[in-house]
């Protein structure tokens, strides 16, 4: 897919959507509107994992260093289409300012396209960065109406005026047809940011001709959330290792009792079909850490995956499973991991995720961590980030790409090329 890139913009390249006013003269003294993914977890006003801010930094820094007036758009959480203080991007603006070269202050507009946004962007100096307030505070951002989204896109573009450019760098949202992702790219000359390009390059390696053996590790809560990617990957992988809450529906499909473990009863027949199609490709846990309550203080015991007692729930894979999964990981040349192996946020149920992640980090395979909870687990558990070839910033976008779906926020960048 031919798209214009950040390098094209910095070097004075032609805009991706020919015929739209502006573009072609580099960025010094010019407004650049950037869509980043800054959807970080918060504890009150404290960012508990700044991985997405750090991932967004290189593109923003390059534009600022080149003398652009950088206006960043982002969302946080799921506000109901109106301002909500608990979803304010203020903590993100502070952290982004700390990370920028020289500790440059990032001005935060108090609204999305209103009077404060106009004032902040209008006062922005060359080489400085401003952040608009949570774009999802405006209901048009996620509207199903193309006209409403286009209206917001035009208002966003008007903040930066004629001659501005748009850089799409929020890979975690490119699977969404939203105003700041899709419609702005049809309004301003559009370019793919460095983060989006890096993500696409990595995912292309997984889908085009991966080195074999190719192992996929899937966890998380529900089979239904991962069904499409399981069906897409099964014909392509050599091993599909399944942990997390989703493994119990597979175990139930084999006829085993799962106690009080998470179970999607309506997915049991689907899991029976998948097991039949997969043969020995699909590997399930042989033991689990079970508890008598969903709590860090619960009584726990390690039991065979086929021997979970009534009233007990599996909350992590057990040590024998970690060893079996690690053996398969150790022989792989390509690995994709998405989803924790257990409730890693609670210390008694973190070792399965830690063990599998450590096995991936210790190997020399081309390894991709598929964003979301998996990326959070790497950082929360203190694992070496450089032990993985790539840690994605977009869990949902990564999965949809691997399913073979078109990503609207990427497809729009090639319009007119």
Q: Helix and strand layout, with pairings?
A:
Layout: H1 6-10, E1 31-35, E2 42-43, E3 46-47, H2 51-65, E4 69-73, H3 90-99, E5 107-108, H4 115-122, E6 129-131, H5 146-160, E7 165-168, H6 179-183, E8 190-192, H7 194-207, E9 214-218, H8 223-233, E10 239-242, H9 247-253, H10 268-278, E11 282-283, E12 287-291, E13 300-304, E14 313-317, H11 319-331, E15 334-338, H12 351-362, E16 366-369, H13 372-380, E17 390-391, H14 395-402, H15 408-411
Parallel strand pairs: 1-4, 1-7, 4-6, 5-6, 7-8, 9-10, 9-15, 10-11, 15-16, 16-17
Antiparallel strand pairs: 2-3, 12-13, 12-14
Helix pairs in contact: 9-10, 11-12
Measured as a percent range, the helix fraction is 25-40%
Low-confidence stretches: 14-24
Strand content: 15-25%
Largest sheet: 6 strands, parallel
Q: How does the overall form come out from the CA principal axes? A: elongated
Structural class: alpha/beta
- Rg, nearest Å: 23 Å
Number of DSSP-assigned strands: 17
